[in-house]
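Why do we bother with a discrete structure alphabet at all? Because it lets us treat a fold like text: something you can write down, compare, and reason about line by line. To make this less abstract, here is a complete entry for glutathione transferase. Read it the way you would read a sentence in a foreign language you are learning: slowly, and without expecting to understand everything at once.
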Amino acid sequence: MSGKPRLTYVNGRGRMECIRWLLAAAGVEFDEIFLERREEYEKLIKDGSLLFQQLPLVEIDGMKMVQSRAILSYIAATHNLYGKDLKERARIDMYVEGIADLMQMILMFPFSPPEAKEKNLDSLKERATNRYFPVFEKVLKEHGQDFLVGNKFSWADVALIEAILAVEEKIPAVLSAFPQLQAFKKRISNVPTIKKFLQPGSPRKPPPDERYIETVMRVFKL
């Protein structure tokens, strides 16, 4: 294996989207393989490509990597998006883990039964506005810098802009009480690699639709 990283997943956001975001932020082009059938997934397991029988799978630098956190950490460290020392790395980890908790709610939302969607949307709004976004509003206000950690673009900034945009898709006015995050969104959206990823035709996936949900259910037998 050599050349561009190769990503294997279904054709949609899911647990691969944060990996696409980070590779794009690092300016790394990648190829993708999209699974459509359960048999394709089972073949990967049979071939030994999936260490824990789980996707996403990223083939990069001669490795077949699974487990999202390990993949993301490797990409961040390889492309100088992981802080300058252990203290900065620890802070990035804290921010990324917090954002991951919020993103888990967004990840599962499309699979909510119809009768639970309104309740789950209210819960997402409450968590975003009362638990998660206030943390980052305070961080940005207190240190007065353009980025979350070390005044340098990092994995934490990538994770946060992804989360902001994902929440805004469901709750458009969610940043109304957060001026620091509004400015952050504008600033990070204009980082050249991020700006490119936000343009039509990029590898960024659209919000989950019925076809995506059906494919996930078919491939993973959920």
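What the structure line is telling us, in plain words: The CA atoms of residues 169 and 207 lie 8 Å apart. The chain is about 55% helix and 5% strand.
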